[in-house]
Amino acid sequence: QVQLVESGGDSVQAGGSLRLSCEVSGNDSSLYSLGWFRQAAGNQREWVATFRHDGGTVSRVSVKGRFTQSKDNAKNTLYLQMNSLKPEDTGMYYCAADRNTLNVALGRAAYWGQGTQVTVSS
Predict the structure, then answer these.
(1) What pLDDT is attached to residue 29?
(2) In this structure, what are the phi and psi dihedrals at residue 102, rounded to the nearest 5 degrees?
(3) Distance between CA atoms of residues 10 and 47, nearest Å
(4) How far is CA 13 from CA 17, 46, 52, 62, 114, in A?
């Protein structure tokens, strides 16, 4: 069992920055790949980025160069640094975890957090 708690969401103006946190707890949580997803009102949830259990990272094209992932293993916390935010980045951001990296990428992760809201105004 893995528990995920997101935080750091807020309302910012376009061009601003936010850092989201995903605190991970549970047995063998270090063996899990993690992912970020977002869902805007009225839209389907979309994948944002993956942080593999081996430390590798990948992100969607629209956030490359603006969003950066990092992980503090001592705190068991994954971070998503979001810079140059755009209104289209608005949405509820979720953290997800699964032992299978492909499941994370496909949005089929076994574990999900409750989400944190990001609102970017123009």
Answers:
(1) 81
(2) -65, -40
(3) 20
(4) 9, 22, 31, 18, 24
Q: Do β-strands 116-121 and 11-13 pair in parallel, antiparallel, or remain unpaired?
A: parallel
Q: Is the pLDDT of residue 27 over 90?
A: no
Determine contact, residues 93/6, Cβ cutoff 8 Å: yes
> What contacts 71, CB < 8 A, 6 or more positions away?
34, 51, 55, 77, 78, 79
Cα 30 from Cα 14, distance rounded (Å): 34
3-state helix, strand, coil in the chain (%, to 5): 10, 50, 40
CA quadruple 110, 113, 114, 119: dihedral sign: negative
3-state secondary structure of 88: helix
Helix (H) or strand (E) holding 47: strand 46-51
Query: What pLDDT score does 90 carry?
Result: 98
Residue 101 half-sphere exposure toward CB, CA atoms < 13 A? 12
Question: Which amino acid type is present at position 42?
Answer: G
First to last CA, the chain: 40
